[in-house]
């Protein structure tokens, strides 16, 4: 008994390490693009548009990848529910890494003309497909391996890869702009180095993800031959309302989150407030560290007071923060920027840490990969896809940031309402044997089927 318990504990630790490392690598790749957009891509690839239009087009390229996340989610969800979680994790990691490294090798507009932005956008599409498929597999590996009483904590591990990826991306960019290739050297060649570093990170991530066991829930599905032939069809026919609620919940987190991860705050503070770009990148990296901590706390807290209540606290914090951060940043003080990002991280973490556990407990086992992946991908489109573009457009039209705060608050309120309609099913048996209970009672409007 003791030996079995020890084996389970060791395996859970390997899964935790694999999900954190793997998602960190994936999101480093994704966020390094947003940093480059804020600092250099408008001139390197979108030069003909010029000025603020070029910056808008550059930010729009961030949103483009989100439009292809559902495709990645559909593909990974379909095959993840049929051939397993681990296989899809490895495939998405390799796809993301290859696209990122190739961006680092791309000629600029000055070198090959219009082909440069076209190739850049194609590679960004591949990043979007990978990101759309990666998240569902990572969270299910973490949550389905976890102790039912600690799913919030276990599910926060893959979530931690996002702030860690942002911290790593911002830190590497700060190193390039401030130490290795300052000034003109960064625009010439320095921006390429962070993209090419992805090759090393992908090798590490691949090795780690290959070392963990398949999810026990999927092993049971495979052994009992319970795979659904068309999981996405079943999902959209029977559980479309859960997908919609899940998407709105994530949109409430994602729209504020992409002010930093989408590069808008980096661009706003460096270009509009004329703050030093290296200092700003360091501040964003430190803000990501705060986000890491609050995400972990959010996951742990959801095991204590429930997923929904933790979310509600987080959304209230976000609704307040969106009206505070811009006046604080507008002081032009780097110290106040640190304060703004720290305040912002509280709501972001509390609405991000519990997400994996909440989503996993919403959907039946046979369509769970499809359910969590598609909800996440659609929420990313509704919330984060064009949040930097919308924020920039509001700023250009009004010449102040209050309208941005109003826009973000509206999305946060929608997220609050959506999560309040979901029934907290903390600790529910996630195995295929319990699919009948999993298939009912996920919202406050549904009757809970008793066994």
Automatic annotation (TrEMBL):
Cross-referenced InterPro entries:
MFS, MFS_dom, MFS_trans_sf
Q: Which Pfam family, an example, fits this chain?
A: MFS_1
Keywords on this record? Cell membrane, Membrane, Symport, Transmembrane, Transmembrane helix, Transport
Q: Tell me the ranges covered by the Major facilitator superfamily (MFS) profile domain, including all copies.
A: 15-427
Q: Where in the cell is it found?
A: Cell membrane
Q: Which domain of life is it from?
A: Bacteria
Q: Name one GO molecular function term.
A: symporter activity
Gene Ontology, cellular component aspect: plasma membrane
Does Membrane appear among the keywords?
A: yes
Q: How does it sit in the membrane?
A: Multi-pass membrane protein
Instruction: Return the PROSITE patterns for the record.
Output: MFS (PS50850)
Give the residue spans that cross the bilayer. 15-41, 53-75, 87-106, 118-143, 191-208, 239-259, 279-301, 313-329, 335-353, 374-395, 401-422
Q: Which family does it belong to?
A: Belongs to the major facilitator superfamily. Metabolite:H+ Symporter (MHS) family (TC 2.A.1.6) family.
**Primary role:** May be a proton symporter involved in the uptake of osmolytes such as proline and glycine betaine.
Name the UniProt record assigns to this protein: Putative proline/betaine transporter
